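TICKET: design request
STATUS: open
ATTACHED STRUCTURE:
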């Protein structure tokens, strides 16, 4: 329970109440009444009948906590067997000693299979793309959305917590048709979504798998004092942001002329991009200059391309602005640099 129930209605109501309908269905399947859990979260029972109903993140946390306790099932009735209170804490602790996020996630997915056979979780890597894939082995019926969304949000949040970093998603997919409240999915998963797929998955840059673990047992103990903190906490820091920006500037020079274009490729806003770079001790213009200078210098020294082509390949709109910038970086014109 939250210490101050008055805070439950604070903040925007963005979480679809359809997830709470799934919890209510789990209560009914066990011949139990969800009224007390709904009351603790200040959710009117009538709201559950509203197709587009929304609740706050705090209400979602409160009703989930109450339901897990009353049902003694952290899976909220989604699997073939209940997962008693503390099951997911056990999984998290078993992964805490891993050296990297990739090892931790593979361990978590493998151990999850020991708790239930209803779903199978795997970590898959192809080139620079990593996925945590979820395949259903049993049909959860009307609980399918709650089952898939809660597991994927849990593992995504835990992964971010393990490395104390945002973990931006590339895309997500789900093994059910788009629900009527599909407009709420950008709140649940801030990435393009595909519905009606063979399995469920969240995809992200594979380089995050190499990040070292940054949490210890003391931090784990604090984390497990509350219900579902992983699904509502926002991480401001992205430990790979500078690398991702450099990569895009190098690979998409003509599509990253300004902050808005670059931010769009990173699925964020220009304002947020500037703020997060500042928190990492970096500056967008400095990164852009660094990547352009390196690219231009390589082309000047290793190829015979005309200056106009070098300028375009380095991300400049015209030769004149390229020459001016290059002279500012090196004190020489591109022609002098090449001949020298």
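STATUS: resolved
RESOLUTION: sequence designed for all positions
ATTACHED SEQUENCE:
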């Amino acid at each position: 329970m939250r210490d101050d129930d008055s805070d439950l209605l604070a903040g925007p109501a963005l979480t679809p109440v359809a997830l709470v309908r799934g919890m209510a269905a789990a209560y009914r399947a066990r011949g139990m009444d969800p009224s007390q859990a709904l009351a603790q979260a200040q959710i009117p029972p009538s709201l559950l009948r509203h197709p587009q109903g929304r609740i706050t993140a705090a209400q979602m946390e409160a009703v989930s906590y109450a339901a897990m306790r009353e049902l003694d099932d952290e899976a909220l009735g989604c699997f073939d067997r209940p997962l008693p209170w503390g099951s997911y804490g056990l999984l998290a602790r078993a992964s805490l000693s891993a050296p990297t996020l990739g090892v931790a996630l593979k361990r978590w997915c493998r151990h999850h299979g020991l708790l239930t056979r209803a779903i199978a979780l795997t970590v898959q890597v192809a080139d620079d793309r990593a996925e945590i894939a979820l395949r259903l082995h049993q049909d959860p019926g009307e609980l399918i959305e709650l089952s898939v969304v809660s597991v994927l949000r849990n593992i995504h949040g835990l992964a971010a917590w393990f490395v104390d970093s945002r973990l931006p998603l590339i895309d997500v997919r789900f093994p059910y048709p788009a629900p009527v409240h599909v407009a709420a999915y950008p709140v649940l998963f801030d990435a393009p979504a595909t519905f009606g797929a063979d399995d469920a998955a969240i995809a992200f840059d594979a380089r995050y798998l190499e990040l070292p673990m940054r949490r210890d047992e003391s931090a784990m103990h604090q984390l497990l004092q509350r219900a579902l903190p992983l699904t509502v906490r926002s991480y401001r820091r992205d430990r790979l942001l500078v690398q991702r920006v450099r990569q895009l500037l190098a690979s998409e020079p003509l599509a990253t002329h300004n902050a808005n274009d670059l931010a769009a490729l990173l699925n964020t806003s220009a304002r947020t991009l500037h703020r997060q770079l500042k928190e990492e001790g970096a500056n967008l213009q400095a990164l852009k200059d660094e990547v352009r200078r390196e690219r231009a210098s390589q082309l000047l020294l290793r190829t015979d391309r005309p200056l106009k082509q070098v300028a375009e390949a380095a991300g400049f709109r015209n030769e004149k602005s390229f020459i001016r910038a290059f002279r500012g970086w090196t004190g020489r014109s591109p022609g002098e640099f090449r001949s020298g």
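CLOSING REMARK: The chain has 15 helices and seven strands. The two ends are 71 Å apart (CA to CA).
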